[in-house]
Known about the structure:
13 helices, alpha+beta, 5-stranded antiparallel sheet, 55% helix
Amino acid sequence: MTAFYIIAGGMTLLALGFIAWPLSRNQHKLQNHRRAANRVIYQQRLEVIQGELESGRLSTEQATALREDAGRHLLGDLESAGAQPEQLVSRSRTWPVLLLVVLVLPAIAIGTYLRSDSWLLIQHEEGEPAWGYLFRKLDDRLALEPEDTEALLMLARTRRAVQDLPASLKAYERLNRVTGYSNAEYLTDEAETRILMEEGGISAQSSERLQQALKLQPDYGRALWYAGLASMAEGDQAAATGYWLRLDKQDLPQAFRKVLQQQLLALGVPQDNLLRSAPAASQPTIDLHISADNALTEGLSGDTPVFVMAKPASGGRAMLAVRKHRLSELPLRTQLTDGMNMAGGPQLSSTDSWRVTVRVAQSGGALPQAGDPFTDIVLTTRDLNGPARLLINKRWDPQSK
């Protein structure tokens, strides 16, 4: 902030120099120009009088009187310039304007800036995120008005934008309670945020919010997509087909429609039943054979979820594909393809190398817990000719991830 004041002060002084210097010079120039012009006029007048005298049109007495009159005019003008009355008047009018420009206008600008919250966003303590002030303002506003839906929505969205998913989820949950679970968009936002937190897993609570959204707005696109994913996770392909066929009838971005129709074709829907033909371009398919070390899974229920996930090998949180199986299915053969991600997010085809993770969720949730049996592998397009074999033989350690 100190740097800001130094720069602002320097710019103000620079502006003063640009304004004052021309004004000062112009006044001297005007004064000198006037004196020179008066002398020229006096000389011209004398030449005219002399010409009239020589031609006989003026007598000697008349010429002398006219010369004296011209001299008095010149002397009066020079005395007036020496007293500088016009310069005093000019300066008396100029300097208030200059003072207004140099002091008042910057004061107004700085006052307006300080009245806004922008300067506080850059005056945060070292190590504190710049969003900290905004979040504090929203928290203060909600402390005074706990049911302010606009503040709750802004808090939820900004928390999610900075990847603070737990705080975003709490804000969405509070928003839906305040609105009486009556807004399909907010309900879907809550479900989507929880799904992102659970790295693609769809819990019963997420499914409940999606069903509430579809009851309010049966053709709400995002809710239809996630409801289809939830049905697929539960093995109900008929329900997933129903949701996605309803979605296929809507106006969708071409890239997303391609993914949607690939899923419908995989579910056995005839191509003629789709709104548009699915593109024939081939997409990457990650073929996997998964087994587990019995020593790590002994004593776990056969219904324990097994999550199969793919992220970019280069790093990042983007979930490119996710599938859910049960421990009783192991060993199993499964595949990851485009369309097994979050709606609108990047696909497997967005990169040519992937980190595939297989994790047994002992707690039943999609969020990893310390001690969960898991394995992972990095694959590239060169590894897609046959099934990659993965053996679940490690324990999840949060400190190493």
